Amino acid sequence: xxxxxxxPQKLHHKALxxxxxxxxxxxxxxxxxxxxxxxxxxxxxxxxxxVVGNEKLPTWQQEENIEIHRFQNQQQNYLQRTEQYMQWVxxxxxxxxxxxxxxxxxxxxxIPILLHxxxxxxxxxxxxxxxxxxxxxxxxxxxxxxxxxxxxxxxQEQFCLExxxxxxxxxxxxxQNIIEKYNLPPEKITVITNGADIxxxxxxPTHLPPKYLIYIGALQPWQGINTLFKxxxxxxxxxxxxxxxxxxxxxxxxxxxxxxxxxxxxxxxxIIWQYQLRKKTLANYLKHAxxxxxxxxxxxxxxxxxxxxxxxxxxxxxxxxxxxxxxxxTQEIITHQKNGILIRPDRPQQWARTLQEYIEQPQTxxxxxxxxxxxxxxxxxxxxxxxxxxxxxxxx
Length: 396
Prior knowledge:
Mean pLDDT: 94
CATH architecture of the largest domain: 3-Layer(aba) Sandwich
Helix content: 40-55%
CATH superfamily of the largest domain: Glycogen Phosphorylase B
Order of helices and strands: EHEEEHEHEHHEHEEHEHEHEHHEHEHHH
Strand content: 15-25%
Low-confidence stretches: none
Distance between the termini: 34 Å
Radius of gyration: 22 Å
Strand order of the largest sheet: 3-4-2-1-5-6-7-8
Largest sheet: 8 strands, mixed
Number of strands: 14
Structural class: alpha/beta
């Protein structure tokens, strides 16, 4: 268990936000943490943020009226890390006597919060923010994980879902799926989607080629990078001067297996890799791309669970044409041929054919892109999402 001896503690916090994620980082999860935690701490005029750190981040820091505490991984085994993290959260909870709201993003944060509440009969509200279900995502990350372990995790999910005061999800797809899977009352769940900021100015990157497609985000198996590479290989026959820019939200190490695939397909020379770019730089890359691509795979993570990809919203916010896999979660955001293009997932030839068709129609793409930006301005700004969350806190 990590000691808190060297970390200053204030005992009067009314709000706590906890997430088993590295914060800050270039990943979409960190962006979401920033905005939702900001909403909570604005509403309660401060609070304590419990997140995961790394070697570059301090274990404790103060930002105005917000305390940030970071858990430092000490175990290589994932489940051992979660056990250690839950103990760490429990210690922090024991130091807080005036909580009114505790907002958590995962079961590893939720279990110690809810157990602490039950044990000491604390009367604070708990918000479970369900962006993903651990029982669905973990087998993609650790294929050798045992079924009995997944069953135990499902029981822990059930505990958190049943005992939280309220649940929020970023899409109706996720809401409906957890209602059916865990037999929850619909009124207990509120949909507050992800959002995007509208950049005001752009600067064209001088080191990028004139014609390129772009992919932004992490490199997990469900993101569909394999489909993207195969489609790009086919597209090269018609667009030999076209490049593909991959803006990875994670470190270069994660790209190694995909670089090998690109070599086998003969497209390595046309792929430009970038890693963990700053938000403003990423917006510049998006703005000057022919199109942004989100080739999500047809798998349990995207279909059975659901998602609300920040990469899609950020592309639309920069008025960059978005091409995405057609599935319930993306259909919540995109209206085909109006503010984006939807393509059947896992079909490289169809992706290549559709991209070729629209690359030859730049005026149509521009119209779609402008519609996309207007859609974000009307329904999906982060400011709107923070206000929706504050309203939920008030209604509690």
